[in-house]
């Protein structure tokens, strides 16, 4: 998949505004990673000086007037709402329908990804490695959500991914140097613990390929082949089988059978490949609304906060991290990292809050730079094209959320007078025959923010 244009990101302090959400600057794709001696550097983000807020300050009355028509659309059903925060002046402007939390769908990924950035840091990388214990070569998963079998032929593919192909080549070379030509291959996916499937997911999610059994070792997110919906019953075993074939191609003979085996601490390191940095992974997850990547990041949050590598540990770490960032999650029910569960219930100010804190903390910038741009990229590429929405094209950055009966958007927009507004709009009561109409109504609401001075 080609890398989308990256917007200029402007660091924002209190009282500063984003100087344009879509810019001409485009980061240079990272070079391929060195599998034996670390990684090649990724392109640095473009950071401009903070911009001053322009024009007359928006008011609650102005925002209410801008949103009124779109929010009155009957397709939104009986439970809809909006919250708008003026990031240029650090104050909440408007809230409606926020007394009850909402099923967030994929806007919940904002909470997972901001927590991953906060706990791991944007430059952190995950390793997939091989170690030798006696005659056993063990493939050890490090929880790389984007690990693939082979290198992409697309030079613009983003982010640059670690591959089993590179790991097999370097492993075979290292084994030959040590005089080893035959091994027994095992695999270790013990970094993550607990059930591989979330108990709150619908029963059809994994059989239909909507999600994979979450694993610390997989390729192509557990898919049997890239782009295929069907997932392997055991992603770790499937990855090890692929790795065995690559080792044989590289000239290493394998004894029969590939089995799970936890690598002992005394095992000898052989070779390593490193993932894309967490910041790039966060951009990918939010741009493409990647359920599997979000679930892997959730478990890393659990590990980073000493709550363990299960999804329940991840949820404990998530709540603790969001609280540390100043978000009140006391009224939130969070069941997974992707938003697939319909039992999630999150207040709109928490969803908007994830964007708000990312605006104010430069180290969380990848949450902002990875948000889809209205009419251009990711899950917003084909939106903001209908009546009343064109004003948001190129000016709105937002994470989308969609389940049956649920539509939501959370992100930021720069108004025509220069103010930066953070918003969350949602409905989880869409009439069965009105899904497209409800989605269009939310698009119109956000586009109205882009087109108004909101000072009346």
Question: Could you explain the architecture of this structure?
Answer:
The longest helix is centred in the C-terminal third of the chain and has 17 residues, at 435-451. 28% of the residues lie in helices and 17% in strands. A hairpin with a 5-residue loop joins β14 and β15 (420-427). 55% of the residues are buried. The strands form four sheets. Strands 7, 8, 9, 10, 11 and 12 form a six-stranded mixed β-sheet that branches. With 456 residues, it is of the alpha/beta class.
Tally the helices: 10
Largest sheet: 6 strands, mixed
Proportion of strand residues: 15-25%
User: Roughly how many Å is the radius of gyration?
Assistant: 23 Å
* Terminal residue distance: 44 Å
Average predicted confidence as pLDDT: 88
State the assembly state of the protein chains.
Answer: single chain
| Extended strand count | 15
> How would the global form be characterised?
elongated
**Topology as H/E string?**
EEEEHEEHEEHEHEEEHHHHHEEEH
Helix content: 25-40%
SS content category: alpha/beta
Low-confidence segments: 1-51
Summarize the structure.
This protein is of the alpha/beta class and 456 residues long.
Key words describing this protein structure:
alpha/beta, 10 helices, 6-stranded mixed beta sheet, 456 residues, elongated
List the helices and strands and how they pair.
Layout: E1 9-10, E2 16-17, E3 47-48, E4 51-52, H1 60-71, E5 80-86, E6 91-96, H2 109-120, E7 127-133, E8 136-140, H3 164-177, E9 182-188, H4 235-249, E10 253-254, E11 259-260, E12 268-274, H5 278-288, H6 291-304, H7 311-324, H8 348-360, H9 365-369, E13 396-403, E14 406-414, E15 420-427, H10 435-451
Parallel strand pairs: 1-3, 8-9, 9-10, 9-11
Antiparallel strand pairs: 2-4, 5-6, 5-15, 7-8, 7-12, 13-14, 14-15
């Amino acid at each position: 998949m080609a890398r989308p244009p990256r917007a200029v990101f402007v660091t924002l302090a209190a009282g500063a505004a984003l100087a344009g959400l879509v810019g001409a600057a485009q980061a240079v794709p990272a070079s391929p990673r060195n599998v034996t001696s670390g990684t090649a550097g990724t392109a640095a983000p473009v950071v401009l000086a903070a911009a001053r807020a322009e024009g007359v300050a928006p008011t609650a009355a102005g925002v209410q007037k801008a949103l009124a028509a779109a929010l009155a659309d009957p397709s939104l059903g009986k439970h809809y709402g909006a919250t708008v925060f003026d990031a240029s002046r650090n104050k909440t402007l408007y809230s409606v329908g926020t007394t009850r939390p909402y099923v967030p769908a994929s806007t919940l990924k904002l909470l997972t990804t901001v927590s991953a950035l906060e706990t791991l840091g944007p430059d952190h990388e995950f390793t997939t490695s091989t170690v030798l214990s006696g005659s056993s070569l063990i493939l050890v998963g490090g929880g790389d959500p984007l690990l693939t079998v082979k290198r992409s032929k697309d030079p613009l593919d983003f982010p640059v991914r670690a591959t089993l192909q590179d790991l097999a080549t370097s492993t075979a070379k290292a084994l030959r140097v040590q005089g080893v030509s035959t091994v027994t291959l095992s695999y270790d996916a013990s970094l993550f613990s607990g059930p591989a499937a979330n108990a709150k997911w619908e029963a059809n999610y994994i059989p239909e390929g909507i999600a994979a059994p979450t694993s610390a070792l997989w390729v192509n997110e557990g898919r049997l082949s890239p782009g295929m919906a069907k997932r392997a019953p055991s992603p770790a075993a499937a990855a090890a089988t692929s790795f065995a074939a690559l080792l044989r191609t590289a000239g290493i003979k394998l004894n029969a059978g590939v089995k799970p085996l936890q690598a002992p601490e005394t095992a000898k390191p052989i070779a390593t490949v490193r993932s894309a940095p967490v910041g790039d992974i966060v951009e990918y997850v939010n741009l493409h609304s990647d359920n599997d990547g979000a679930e892997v990041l959730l478990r890393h949050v659990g590990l980073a906060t000493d709550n363990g590598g299960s999804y329940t540990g991840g949820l404990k770490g998530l709540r603790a991290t969001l609280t540390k960032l100043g978000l009140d999650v006391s009224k939130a029910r969070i069941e997974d990292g992707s938003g697939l569960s319909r039992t999630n219930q999150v207040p709109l100010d928490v969803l908007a809050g994830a964007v708000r804190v990312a605006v104010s903390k430069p180290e969380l910038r990848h949450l902002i730079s990875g948000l889809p741009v209205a009419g251009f990229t990711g899950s917003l590429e084909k939106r903001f094209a209908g009546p009343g929405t064109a004003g948001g094209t190129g000016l709105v950055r937002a994470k989308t959320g969609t389940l049956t009966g649920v539509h939501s958007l959370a992100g930021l927009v720069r108004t025509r007078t220069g103010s930066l507004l953070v918003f969350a709009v949602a409905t989880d009561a869409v009439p069965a025959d009105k899904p497209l109409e409800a989605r269009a109504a939310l698009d119109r609401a956000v586009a109205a923010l882009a087109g108004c001075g909101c000072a009346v």
